[in-house]
Write a structure and sequence with these properties.
mainly alpha; two-stranded antiparallel sheet; 5 helices; 4 strands; elongated
């Protein structure tokens, strides 16, 4: 007695199996979707004034808080500057690094990339006020310490949420395929 195995509609079962395997893998669109979710989460918590671990950001200096309050109507630490310029939160991008990974960061603007790194890591910054080609200004400081405000990162909960959302997209794709 001979047995014949077929896929849906009498098709090749091996081809059906390969199709399911291919559709179960994350796509570039899935990874871009995951990155956009992560960017939205980073923006939401940063604007709320909290870091990746949910702790409030280190306060601004008293002078900067006053300047920001005058320019924007508030002095809260949300990493949006008092000056009118492109902001690092608006420059966040997702870059897909192959078939199964992506990165979120600032990739196309060296100035914003540096500003983001300084805020994220906290560094000592050289200023123009205390030094330069001309006579130093009164009470100018040659540098200041930028406190660490870890905003450009993802915590375990955020990573799990993004992984779950990508998994749900894959599950939906497979359900449609196997209907």
């Amino acid at each position: 007695m001979d047995a014949t195995f077929t896929g849906d509609g009498g098709g090749d079962p091996i081809a059906q199996f390969h199709l399911v395997i291919r559709e179960a893998a994350p796509t570039r669109a899935d990874l871009l979707f995951g990155g956009s979710l992560l960017i939205a989460g980073i923006r939401d918590r940063t604007v709320a004034g909290v870091d990746v671990d949910g702790s409030p950001f280190a306060p601004y200096s008293e002078d900067y808080a006053k300047r920001k309050s005058g320019a924007l109507g508030h002095g809260r630490v949300d990493l949006f500057g008092a000056d009118h310029h492109t902001h690092m939160l608006n420059a966040l991008q997702t870059v897909v690094d192959g078939d199964d990974s992506f990165g979120v960061g600032i990739y196309a603007n060296d100035e914003l990339e540096e500003r983001a790194r300084v805020h994220n890591e906290g560094l000592t910054i050289r200023t123009r006020l205390g030094s330069g080609r001309h006579k130093p200004k009164k009470e100018g400081k040659a540098s200041f310490d930028m406190p660490q405000r870890r905003w450009l990162d993802a915590n375990m909960s955020e990573v799990q949420s993004v992984n779950q959302a990508i998994g749900e997209r894959i599950d939906d794709r497979l359900r449609l395929l196997l209907q």
